[in-house]
Amino acid sequence: MLTEFTPFPALAGGMLIGLSAVLLMAFHGRIAGMTGILAGVLRPTAGDWGWRAAFLVGAIIAPVLVLAVSGQAVSFTNVVPVPLLIVGGIVVGIGVSFGGGCTSGHGVCGIARLSSRSIVATATFMLAAFATVYVARHILGAF
User: Fold this and answer.
1) 85 near 78, Cβ under 8 Å?
2) What are the E-state strand segments in the chain?
3) Using an 8 Å Cβ cutoff, are 74 and 67 in contact?
4) What count of other Cβ atoms lies within 10 Å of the Cβ of residue 21?
5) Residue 65, SS3?
6) Which listed residue, of 17, 45, 100, 103, carries a Cα 20 to 30 Å from 10's Cα?
7) pLDDT tens, position by position, 118-127
8) What is the pLDDT of residues 25-84, one digit of tens each?
9) Four-residue CA torsion sign, 121, 126, 127, 129
10) Shortest CA distance to 25 belongs to which of 46, 63, 55?
C-alpha cells in the first residue's frame, strides 16, 4: 500500500492544531482533547457547551472551508471495512476512558506542558499503533 507524503499540508495542519490548542488554553483555560470536548457536548455542564460545540463544528467543517478557499478537496480513502472501523472506534473509546484522555489531549497538549503522564500515554498510543499496523500489514496481509 502506497502512502502519500504531503509535508506542507501536514505542516500547515499541525500548525493550525497547535494554534487552536494554544487559543483554547489562553481564552478558556481548557485542554484541547477532542474526546473530552465531545463528552462535554454530550453531557453538558453550565457554561461549557457553547465553546465545545463550536470547537467540534469547526473541526467538522474545516475540510469544507479548505475546499472553498483552495478549490482542492481533502482526499480521504477508506481501505478498512466499516465493521472494523466501528470495532476500532469502540476499542479506542475504551482506551480513552482507561488512559484518562485521547491522543490530542495527551499528545498535543500534555507533551507541550511536559506532563510525564501524557508522555507515557502518548508513547503507549504510538507503540500500540505501530504494532497494530505491523500485524495488519505484514502478518495478516490485510489493508
Assistant:
1) yes
2) none
3) yes
4) 19
5) helix
6) 100
7) 999 999 989 9
8) 999 888 888 888 888 899 887 788 998 999 899 888 988 888 899 888 777 777 788 898
9) positive
10) 55
The Cα 71–Cα 93 span in angstroms is 34
Instruction: Look at residues 21, 24, 34, 18 and name the one whose alpha carbon lies nearest to residue 89.
Output: 34
Cα–Cα dist 60/56, whole Å: 6
Give the span between the Cα atoms of 64 and 41, in whole angstroms.
22
Residue 14 carries which side chain, given as an amino acid letter?
A: G
At residue 109, what are phi and psi to the nearest 5 degrees? -85, -45
Q: How many CB atoms lie within 10 A of CB 99?
A: 20
11 Cβ contact list (under 8 Å, min separation 6): none
Residue count of the chain, please give it: 143
CA 50, CA 42: separation in Å to the nearest integer?
A: 12
pLDDT at 54: 92
The domain segmentation of the chain, as residue ranges, is 7-139
**Mind spelling out the 3-state secondary structure of 24-40?**
HHHHHCCCCCHHHHHHH
Grid coordinates in use for 24?
Answer: 483554547
